[in-house]
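ESCALATION

Customer reports they have been waiting on this structure for their group meeting. Please prioritize. Original submission:
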Amino acid sequence: MQRIIDDEKEKTWGMLTHLLALSVFIGIPFGNVIGPLIIYLIKKDEYAFVREQGREVLNFQITWSLIFIVSTILIFIGIGVVMLIAFGIAWLVLVIVGAVTASNGTTYHYPF
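Update from on-call: job pushed to the front of the queue and completed.
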């Protein structure tokens, strides 16, 4: 069930929970999990929307981290490169869609 949030601060923190997954691009190892985890731990008691979106983001990011690790291992048999590219594009699109949806104040549930 989707909820719509009116509080601008709550929307902003919810959006940041999704966007901090992109911190992996600035060289932070497992930043895709660490960034959202920090926001979740700090703001979960203050905002129900952040608590809900934080759990959703963390579940998604942990799952995709495992997928990327398996894909990296499969590079040795040749299919890993294709998997990394395909999963990487899908991951980026889903994170951006989640951030935009959360910035509109609507709960977002990742498809996995």
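Sent to customer with the following note: The chain has four helices and no strands.
Escalation resolved.
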